[in-house]
Design goal:
CATH class of the largest domain: Alpha Beta
Number of strands: 16
CATH superfamily of the largest domain: Zn peptidases
Structural class: alpha/beta
Strand content: 15-25%
Bound molecules: (2S)-amino(hydroxy)ethanoic acid, manganese (II) ion
Shape: globular
Number of domains: 2
Order of helices and strands: HHEEEHEHHHEEHEEEHEEEHEEHEHEH
Largest sheet: 10 strands, mixed
Radius of gyration: 23 Å
CATH architecture of the largest domain: 3-Layer(aba) Sandwich
Helix content: 25-40%
Length: about 425
């Protein structure tokens, strides 16, 4: 089929929508605090559904809280051609991580709709629930459940630190969107493309606007509970202590030595470290910490991750230690057809582009289990992300939305 006309997206509207969304959960430091299905995140869903309603697009929710905004196609028997990402953020997140993929996808739907282009497949914008995994563990919960990688009942039972369950939050979302239809988990999708900021410095360094993402590194995450004994810090000699902090810090230090490489490619992080009970004059009887280990080679990721429990146990001293690996994802590759699709659209519009690997995790990993999936990266200032000063440029966001528009048309007409 010859290339149909590719209507131009409305970059001013797209940027304005970013500013509108950034107000929802906006922080004094210029970032966004919009945890998964918090009141703020539900407000963001409602705003999107409101924008969708203006065009008569329908809104569906599935049982894990993913949202599907749909522009009908001429053949309802065909699965939708989709794009999207997530609206939830880290506790002190940026104004682009996730939301840019959702808004670029929605802008493509509106642009195609306003151009009156009829597509055989329906077009959908997908908002995957709880990509960050910050309020509720694990990350990419919504997309993983949808693609069959996690059991919905287990995930709905997950609690945040205040004992609130994901199930009650999904209930609140459905209550806030009574007009939403319901979507079956795992319902077929024809193809999925996700726009996201790179969260690294390669595109910025190379002066490229667009990254055609080739694949994503794997990761393994562990929770470690070190159990000692609360004691008086003045009267208890070292010989009689079961100091959970001393043991946990020995463990994390030993892990740093194990997971250190000259090439600086192993990503080992302890981002959450809780010392309890937290009294200044109390020898801590409990430490909970969380390990995020990532690497691009499956064999080495397996070998390194398998060493973690033994290292923790070897440094427990007089304490007990419980280790649970709660998520494990192998490195993955996107199909050549989607990578090339991004490159062709970028070349068509003269956007400087390159192929690029993703060192961050994204929902597209799980969509790729159901259909041909791909990702479009755009630069973010100095690669800063998961940080209030995260920044992306309107023109780069517009370029990605144009590519999404082109690809949706190519795949859905
Ligand atoms: O952690 C990640 O890789 C993603 O940005 N949530
Ligand atoms: Mn993200
Ligand atoms: Mn993120």
């Amino acid at each position: 089929m010859s290339n149909p006309p590719y209507p131009e997206i409305n970059s001013k509207r797209l940027w304005r929508r970013h500013l509108d969304m950034a107000k929802i959960g906006g922080t004094p430091g210029g970032g966004v605090h919009r945890l998964a299905l918090s009141d703020e995140d539900i407000e963001a869903h409602l705003l999107l559904a409101e924008w969708a309603g203006v065009h008569g697009f329908s809104t569906d929710l599935d049982s894990i809280g993913n949202m599907f905004i749909r522009r009908a196609g001429s053949d309802p028997s065909l699965p939708p051609v989709a794009s999207g990402s997530h609206t939830d953020t880290q506790p002190l997140g940026g104004r682009f991580d996730g939301i840019t993929g959702v808004l670029a996808a929605f802008e493509a739907l509106e642009t195609i709709h306003e151009a009156g282009i009829e597509t055989r497949h329906a077009l959908e914008t997908i908002v995957w629930n709880n990509e960050e995994g910050s309020r509720f563990i694990p990350a990419c919960m919504g997309s993983a459940v949808y693609a069959g990688g996690e059991e919905v009942s287990d995930m709905l039972a997950r609690e945040d630190r205040n004992g609130v369950t994901m199930g009650s939050c999904v209930g609140a979302l459905k209550k806030a969107l009574p007009q939403a239809g319901s979507r079956e988990l795992g319902a077929p999708i024809a193809s999925f493309i996700e726009t996201h900021i790179e969260q690294g410095i390669e595109l910025e360094t190379n002066g490229n606007t667009i990254g055609a993402v080739t694949g994503m590194q794997g990761y393994r995450r562990f929770e470690v509970h070190v159990i000692g004994e609360d004691a008086h810090s003045g009267t208890t000699p070292r010989a009689r202590r079961k100091d959970a902090f001393a043991a946990a810090s020995d463990m994390t230090r030993a892990l740093r030595e194990l997971l250190w490489d000259e090439e600086d490619e192993i990503r080992y992080t302890v981002g959450r470290f809780e010392v309890l009970p937290g009294g200044i004059s109390v020898v801590p009887g409990r430490v909970n910490f969380y390990i995020d280990l990532r690497y691009h080679d499956a064999g080495k990721l397996d070998a390194l991750g398998d060493r973690i429990p033994e290292i923790c146990r070897a440094h427990a001293g007089p304490c007990e230690v419980e280790i649970n690996e709660f998520i494990r994802q192998a490195p993955m590759a996107f199909p050549e057809s989607m990578i090339a699709g991004v490159e062709q659209a970028a070349a068509r519009h003269g956007f400087p582009h390159q192929r690029i690997y993703s060192y961050a995790g994204h929902d597209a990993r799980h969509a790729a289990r159901l259909c041909p999936a791909g990702m479009i990266f755009i630069p973010c200032w100095r690669g800063i992300s998961h940080n209030e000063s995260e920044r992306a440029e309107p023109d780069d966001i517009a370029a990605a939305a144009q590519i999404v528009t082109d690809m949706l048309i190519d795949q859905a007409v």
